[in-house]
Amino acid sequence: FFLMIRRPPRSTQSRSSAASDVYKRQLNKSLAFTPFETKWIPNSAKFVLLGQTPKATGIAQVYQLNKTELTLLSEFQRGKGFKCGTFGASQVNKAELATGDHEGNLEIYDLEAGKPFYNIKAHDQLVNSIDGIGGLEIGYGAPEIVTGGRDGCVRVWDPRQNGAVVSLEPAEKDPVVPDCWAVAFGNSYNNEERCIVAGFDNGDVKMFDLRMNQLRWDTNLKNGVCGIEFDRKDIMMNKLVATTLEGKFHVWDLRTYHSEVGYSSLQESGQKSTIWGVKHLPQNRDIFATQGGNGVLNLYKYNYPPQRVLEDLEGRERGVVGTVELLNDKELATQPIASLDWNRDKIGLGVVSCLDQTLKVFIAVSYTHLTLPTIYSVQISVVAVSLKKK
Hints:
- The chain has about 400 residues and is mainly beta.
- It has one helix at about 15-20; strands at about 25-30, 35-40, 45-50, 60-65, 70-80, 80-85, 95-100, 105-110, 115-120, 125-135, 145-150, 155, 165-170, 180-185, 195-200, 205-210, 215-220, 225-230, 240-245, 250-255, 265-270, 275-280, 285-290, 295-305, 310, 315-320, 325-330, 335-340, 350-355, 360-370, 375-385.
């Protein structure tokens, strides 16, 4: 369904006019469940949709993208509803999906068989977030999975072992245990270095160094952290983006740490509702999209400052954060965008699942002036599937 969109003259097209000229096609399906996660299957035009049925059972569906149509290839159900999933620790030639469910289980599925070959009780309660690394030829070192749960714990798993290799738990003396809402891997640029970052409902952001086995940095954003992601997992950590309640997101420059100030950062009020998550474009780490609680997808570009490092009065290096610009926005749903995933093979191709029980495949098309390396407009075209019951 890759659309040929005529390029208007640069002098006449603005960001708002690009959004108004978007082509949209609607496809309806008589399905009825709440989708929580969508992930492209590596090296294919297929993706998996994870969710929960009205009977609180888990459901997984595999779709194939065929030009302007979505074909349901397979479906299976499990005991408890799925909440999150990742292919990050999968081998590049296999489709091994790691999932977290509403009962706290971590499972790894062979999608062709529709059955798990790895199953372990990861958390006492709901698994809110999951990420993987070491698979798909992304990052160095062994394949690992990180999970964050409602019990406030952050745990790292090696699929070759039957237990957590790292378990980060709240202190027993804490009167209120914070809920871990988001986790992500990063800084995996050689076989020794690797970090995880976790965001909590009390606004805490904590970065753990897995090589040193210690807390590397933490801060508090004063709002619950709904989504968090490094711009790239397989490089020396460069930037970090976190999204929060009340429509804010934060960007840190992670190349330079100051002993008093920490990492330089900026805060933006991106939307008028909670921002549920963030995903960087795999082909360009400076472009990222945020998932609005109002159903709006915002596409941003990060611009580096002329100089990333300055010295303070005492001669200590201090990082300088850049700026972000809104490339475009598009209302994709009437309720929150629960998940977003970019296709690694087709630039700009994405899939979202929304809490109004809709699934949408979209493509963001950029136009670049021949002499200037900056994107001046983005169009977002949509193929939608309604999961509402007829």
